[in-house]
Automatic annotation (TrEMBL):
PANTHER family: HTH-TYPE TRANSCRIPTIONAL REGULATOR GALS, LACI-RELATED TRANSCRIPTIONAL REPRESSOR. Keywords: DNA-binding, Transcription, Transcription regulation. Residues 10-64 form the HTH lacI-type domain. Transmembrane segments: none annotated. InterPro entries: HTH_LacI, LacI/GalR-like_sensor, Lambda_DNA-bd_dom_sf, Peripla_BP_I. This is LacI family DNA-binding transcriptional regulator.
């Protein structure tokens, strides 16, 4: 085949001529239409790649679909979000969909502004991790754009999909594990948020923690602390916890990212882990396995969460209108940070 001339605008007709098929056939491949053979799809995509063809997003939006999805996270620092993003990418790798990332900095105003920008750019759907907006705002967004939330326990009547793990069960597994290992003064380090709702994962984990402490006969030792998700704030709260007269002998953290800060402060204060203090996180990110951390954590499989969120969103875009709520069963991965106490 003669080399393709790169000058000039590459159109759908150019692709059709290069592939030796009709314009209608190329259009079907671009729309991911039903009934297109894999051979035709491969042939057309090979021509698009060779020509450097890129569908014009605005034009596609006018036809009803842009094949772009918004992916909104609270911040860039929590490694668990990259696990989720990896799962989303796996689910979309054989589709035409591309994701565009937004970071809300855990601020409702930024979150809403980003969502409006994504809607203005005619994105086909939206995946939001740990939304800060109130439930009524979520409902309004979902009425305008297919939406899937990760880390949000929906109330009845939701017009959006959710993907979660069983956060109450995860917290119960932590308390049961620590109690069986000989710890009794088990504290829960939660995230400090304004306008906290029952839909938040941190709220569900606190409910599970409190119930499990009571079930274990440790109700009188219940301690809940809160900290903003910043290093300075977290370290200050942890120092207060570990230097108090009623110092806990174990700390359950709502996420690994915070648990790593606890390990750092404990060692800075000369405390051994787990000799003086047990530490347990949540998410089972890659950093838990590092020898200097050896962090016990709850595994909720970030890649599975991301993969299922992408699947549900594509189904929504294709027309499903009944809400679905996918739940992963958590499991505890025990490491040295919560080894049994020595007599």
């Amino acid at each position: 085949m003669a080399p393709v001339k790169k000058s000039g605008r590459i159109t759908i007709r150019t692709v059709a001529e290069d592939a030796g098929v009709s314009v209608a056939a190329v259009s079907k491949v671009l729309r991911d239409a039903y009934g297109v053979s894999e051979a035709l799809r491969t042939k057309v995509r090979a021509s698009m790649s060779r020509l450097g063809y890129r569908p014009h997003a605005a034009a596609r939006g006018m036809r009803g679909q842009t094949y772009t999805l918004g992916f909104l996270i609270p911040d860039m620092r929590n490694p668990f979000f990259s696990d989720i993003f990896a799962g989303v990418n796996v689910a979309l790798e054989r589709t035409q969909y591309q994701t565009l990332l937004g970071v809300s900095e855990s601020a409702t105003s930024i979150e809403m502004a980003l969502i409006e920008a994504m809607i203005d750019r005619q994105m086909d759907g939206l995946i939001v991790i740990g939304p800060r907006m109130m439930s009524q705002d979520v409902m309004q967004v979902a009425a305008r754009l297919p939406t899937v939330l990760i880390g949000h326990h929906a109330t009845p009547g939701a017009n959006f999909d959710t993907v979660n793990n069983d956060d109450r069960l995860g917290a119960e597994l932590v308390v049961q594990h620590l109690a069986a290992a000989g710890y009794s003064h088990i504290a829960y380090l939660n995230q400090q948020v304004t306008d906290a709702e029952q839909t938040m994962v941190t709220t569900h984990r606190e409910i599970g923690y409190r119930q499990a402490m009571k079930d274990a006969g440790l109700g009188k030792h219940i301690q809940v602390f809160q900290a903003l998700q910043t290093s300075r704030e977290t370290q200050g709260v942890v120092r207060h916890m570990l230097q108090s007269r009623n110092r806990p002998d174990a700390i359950f953290c709502w996420t690994d990212f915070i648990a790593l800060e606890v390990l750092s402060v404990a060692r800075e204060l000369g405390l051994s882990v787990p000799g003086d203090l047990a530490v347990v996180g949540y998410d089972n990110t890659a950093y838990c396995d590092l020898a200097q951390n050896a962090l016990t954590s709850i595994d909720q499989s970030g890649q599975v969460l991301g993969l299922q969120a992408a699947r549900l969103l594509v189904e929504r875009i294709k027309g499903r209108d009944q809400a679905e709520h996918f739940v992963v069963t958590p499991r505890l991965v025990a490491r040295a940070s919560s080894s049994p106490r020595r007599p």
